[in-house]
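Residues pack. One example:


***
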Amino acid sequence: MIISGQDMVTEQPKEVTIQSEDVRAALVEPCEDMVLSIKETFKKTNPDLASDIIQNGILLTGGGGLLSGLDRYLTDMLEIPVWVSETALTNVVTGCLKVLETPTALRQTLMRSK
């Protein structure tokens, strides 16, 4: 694939050709970090909820959830079913809208981020 952008050194427009192997290699570390983060979160999760997740699986949402093969990779690494939402591209926006429309949910969200 040919991509266009600005050269970080010369600050001039530039086109480069990237191979799928380059993209795959660039994603290895972030995907490994994701697996570690999920495992760490499971250690802190209520046992009943963890049991439900192990039984029912994890649902990927957002544009990142559409990354080809991510669901299979996570399923293999976590030994838990991982699914991609049919509405992955709109899930994040829909969730944000619901939080903004519900003052108590917005307050709870803001309190958790502190």
The helical segments are 20-43, 47-56, 70-78, 88-101, 103-112.
